[in-house]
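Posting this for the archive.
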Amino acid sequence: MALWGGRFKQQASTQFKAFNDSLPVDFRLAEQDITGSVAWSRALCKVGVLSADEQSRLEQALGALLAEVQADPNSVLASDAEDIHSWVEGKLIDTVGDLGKKLHTGRSRNDQVATDLKLWCKQKGGELLLALVNFQQALMDLSQRERATVLPGYTHLQRAQPVTFGHWCLAYVEMFDRDIGRLKDALYRADTSPLGSGALAGTAYPINRMELAADLGFRRPTMNSLDAVSDRDHVVELLSSASVSMMHLSRFAEDLIFYNSGEAGFIELSDEVTSGSSLMPQKKNPDALELIRGKSGRVYGAMTAMMMTMKALPLAYNKDMQEDKEGLFDALDTWQQCLDMGVLVAQGLKVNSARTLAAAQQGYANATELADYLVSKDIPFREAHHIVGEAVLAAIEAGKPLEDFSLSELQQYSDRIEEDVYQHLSIESCLDKREVLGGTSRAQVQKTIESIQSGKHEILGSHVLGGTGTDQIQLALKQVQQRLNAQKAEALSVRRARMTDVDQILRIVSYWSDKGETLPRSRDNIIHDIQNFVVAEVQGSVVGCASLYIYQTGLAEIRSVGVDSNAQSKGQGRAMIQYLLEQARHIELKRVIVLTRVPDFFAKLGFIRTAMASLPEKVMKDCEICPKQHACDEVAMEYVVKITEQPMPAGAIPVNQLV
């Protein structure tokens, strides 16, 4: 069924219909189109276009259609409808008759498709966020496993200085952390509702677009109808985010392809992500990595195509914009598949530590250490650089490493060289001198891993930013893990509370206070403290809440923690606490306390027990409203907040309804 035709005398040709129809692509927007239609029916009911009974019948029919689509999404493709909008309307008319024809009142396909696409982007963005965090975690796990493994570092594909394999992993963790930031930024700007903008000039009906946007889960409506129906910046931004991240994935793949080669032999890939040759039985090809590398061009192509499509379009909507979806869908699917494949690669990867160590010992990677040694003997660095260059040239001609030179041989290049030089020429010395944040020394790696496992977050403030020491790798691992925790929280849809959440927060708090698990809070109290609350969502519904109440400079309490009973054991409570701890770190609190009956839960998050008597009087004043104040069974716990050198992760920035 076409949504137009009265102005035409002839039917469109079959050839044009095949060229014009978009259902084979936009059928993926079926759920979003139905969701938008339900919200629009409610808005029409509020302005008197639909009666309450009519709206109820429409919503019931749309709900049944949604269940049908979810059961078999590809069933939509059996239709000859022009697009997903006409398919939904046609199915609705089949069910409720002429009533279905009233739904499109005041609405255009222009604002309809813009809304559907933004809803889809928000949902897909949440999936991608989780995929990025999962890949980062796989890299973190590999980094911890290989934290002490020596690896030759390269510049210009020439062996440079030794690092650790864990340090190499953390380099990619940082890259993908920036990708997460870009994705969140793009999703934040996409989180505006175009519905109610009509074809280009806005709807003629007095729709409350603020309420409509909230009903759809957007943070606000768009502010200009012309822009709303013609804006595809969110498509461009998501493709841009995907392109940068695919570039990082491609570099990751290229590194491992080289490390896996017979010439390097540093790693072996799992059989799960490799294939063989149809002719040569000895071959084990890194196909997963080569495909990741190859698919980056596919995503870049979608980005370039979208930019070319939009570059000269006049306002407002043009049919050219129908080309926005195919490339976007394919690019984001490809990005997600490559991230998931990256997890498999990292999990099954085996490192040949003997081979990596031998390679690191070759190539005179300790030449810089010899130069630094000469600097410690009061030789200017430029002169030391020249002296070591001559020594390396002689070593190459002799075919032996610098550390195999006798003392008398080394002293031919400088009489400042003494017996203590050899302790500076070992691989361990090269690594362990890198005692700076971001460094690669083994001791620092181990220390950070232990701090992660124990939940004690120690920051070594005496160290300098930017080096490769083992202690600093360990510290970096801890800080990255903290950041990942916050990102996982957001991937589980933990966000700052809004005024529209007050009733749901009250419901959750009242449920648990009635059971004697938390203190009661009035609706007015929740409204007053709404800026202190975070909530957890599942499929757009609030299922949990928690608050960070600040008492004084440096001190705050986590309270009013609750999760719906049917949503427990899914990580929502842990995610909310990690989110609040990241906020505490960002605003430079010193202590976060909690009074709890589940101390083991908080202990796993880094809290330690403390005496009730040590808590400030302001904290204990709350006990006056507790029904168990004369038979208290709560445990006092505290978390000592350490301020990191890292900026606040986007996990503590309000990004609404990512999934």
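Confidence is low (pLDDT under 50) at residues 448-468, 644-659. The first strand starts at residue 150 and ends at 155.
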